Amino acid sequence: MPRPAVGSLIALEGVTKEFSVRHGRRVTTHRAIVDASFSVGRGEFVAIVGRSGSGKSTILNLIAGLLAPDRGAVLYGAARVAGVNTCVGYMTQRDNLVPWRTVWGNLMLPLQIRHAPRSERPRLIESVLRRVGLTEFSRHYPAQLSGGMRQRVALARMLIYDPETLLMDEPFGALDEQLKLSLQNYLEMLWEERRKTVVYVTHDLGEAIALADRVVVFAGRPGSVREQIPVPFGRPRNIYALRYDPAFTALHRRLWEALGSPEEDAVQRQVPS
Ligand code: ADP
Ligand code: MG
To answer: Atom 21 in ligand 1: which residue has the minimum CA distance?
Structure first.
């Protein structure tokens, strides 16, 4: 089993995760992830790609401490993750905004949790709202916003909480191409500025290449680490120009091949009882 690199902040060591599903009186157990190992360095931006159902969200849930592995270990810092990991901010696939609070109220929540000085709170909220382009919507409730706008509020909420590590699960999937590029660009800038550790799940290979230092390819069913490929582009990056670079196309193709075909996934996932 590969040991985590020196200076790694997050490490998965031989992680297997199973889920039991009840069908009436019968319970079947499925393996979601089998023997997955990889690590993430402090300040590194790692993208996880893989097709739907390959276990990407499960990986983030394990790092966030919302799930525990059935075999193997999940380490954060030098310690095993046991219970909710408060060092991470988690932007889940669904936005999880509080429906009875306005945008402003949703962004106030992490500041209250963090005990940020009261006098600074309005300024912090205004600044993050400007960043995500939602200044005019501060008094709206989540139900009054489009899916893309809600995702931007969720991004703002994570940023305002200011965690050491950002876990992001297909955060910009619902956005139109232009907005997506602009938020990717913003995230890249933010990373330059603050050097957060980021684990970014996406099925968009172009997005993974544009943003990450390294791409971890999840493939198969159950999912496992198929390949880990460093991204050869330096920083700061021009997210807009990058996709016309021949090295971008070559890497895109390599990732595509590493993902494997759906036929390979037809391997029996059910755990024999
Ligand atoms: P991805 O994010 O790559 O689409 P997931 O991590 O969500 O994949 O899921 C991996 C597999 O585990 C899927 O087959 C999914 O159905 C199963 N799974 C995930 N969460 C649960 C759960 N809470 N209960 C039962 N099965 C689950
Ligand atoms: Mg998912």
So the answer is: 19
CA of 17 to the centre of ligand 1 (A): 10
Residues 222-261: tens digit of each pLDDT: 889 999 999 999 888 888 889 899 999 999 999 999 987 7
Ligand 1 centroid, distance to 237 Cα (angstroms) = 33
Show the ligand 1 pocket: residues with CB < 6 angstroms: 19, 21, 32, 50, 52-58
Cα-based torsion angle of the residue sequence 264, 61, 163, 130 in order, rounded to the nearest 10 degrees:
70
> What pTM value is reported for the model?
0.90
Tokens 């060591």: give the residue: 13
What are the φ and ψ backbone dihedral angles of 100, each rounded to 5 degrees? -95, 10
